[in-house]
Amino acid sequence: MSPFIAEIIGTMILILLGNGVVANVLLDKTKGNNSGLIVIAFGWGLAVYVGVLVAGPYSGAHLNPAVTVGLAVAGKFAWSSVITYVAGQCIGAALGSILNWLLHLDHYKITANTDAKLSTFSTSPAISNPVINVITEAIGTFVLIFAVLYIAGPSFNADGLNGAVIGLGSLGALPVAFVVIAIGLSLGGPTGYAINPVRDFVPRIMHTVLPLGDKRDSHWGYSWVPIVGPFIGAVIAAGLFLSLS
Length: 245
Known about the structure:
By secondary structure, the protein is mainly alpha-helical. The protein is built from ten helices and two strands. Strands 1-2 form a two-stranded antiparallel sheet. Helix 3 (65-73) crosses helix 7, helix 3 runs parallel beside helix 10 and helix 7 crosses helix 10 (225-244). It is globular and about 55 Å long.
């Protein structure tokens, strides 16, 4: 599997499961209706785990332009591959949004709360304050990228096995999932912790174009915040990592 395809599939799974848990909590008459932030935080963490599990062996499973740029700034990823990775992430986010919409189609039809419908695609602030909202997204993304830069699964060489390296395998994806859960539970209240420009921007486009019954506008006036904030946080995290290395 090429890195481009891996980023598409990994990001598709990320958005399907991540926004899927939001839909399960917020849309009417789902089995998980009104189960709360803790369910959403753990659902998003596990969505990251599955996405990294699938895409990791082929692309490193960035699944997030802020991760891609952060790694490039830190010298751990080639700048020449950034556009390819981000393009794959955008396509994957669109596909994941469409699958989530199809899965919950009947629930979108009967849900009267148009803000809840939008929340199953993109984020919005609990209190609108653009400067603080950007700082919030930057801090959350800083924690994510800084942790990712230090995550390395332990491995060891086994004598007599022709230099084979034995590592954590699929368990290597768990640390990133735990970081995302921690961010959601501790830092997710003010903005919904997008911490990923593609995770917010592309599903917001899909909210605009997909039929959802009654729906509100897609809150495009806020859409720049979960783009700018994560990139700021990623660059700061990479810069600090380099200064400490």
